[in-house]
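Hi Prof. W.,

I finally got the Holin-like protein prediction working! I wasn't sure whether to trim anything, so I left the full sequence exactly as given:
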Amino acid sequence: MVLKTITILSQLALIHVFYFAGVGLAHILSLPVPGSIVGLVLLLLSLFAGIVKLEWIEKAGGWLLAELLLFFVPSAVGILNYKEILNWQGLETVLLILISTFIVMAATGFTAEKLYRRKRKGGHTS
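And this is what came out:
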């Protein structure tokens, strides 16, 4: 249990290195993209280049995905401060959320299915 916790914390630290690098790079270059997105791109490029191995961040990534819903609770509560916007554009917002959720779920399912089939055939997923 302790070893698992230490592993996840060290992997989270590595993910945060990329986050902070992305924030710094976005600030220095005055990019119109949030630093967190730049950090994700840096991490993705590092994974593709083999600089970072998937095993180095896999458990922390799994934990973050498992607890993802908890990260949205503060945002959902914060939206309640803007009732006038919800009253004005509530239906459009709800429809947009439902449609985008469906698209993300379909794309994720499609991608997972393709990767699963490729892995079963003995192909490489990375």
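The first helix runs from residue 2 to 28. Does that look reasonable to you?

Thanks,
D.
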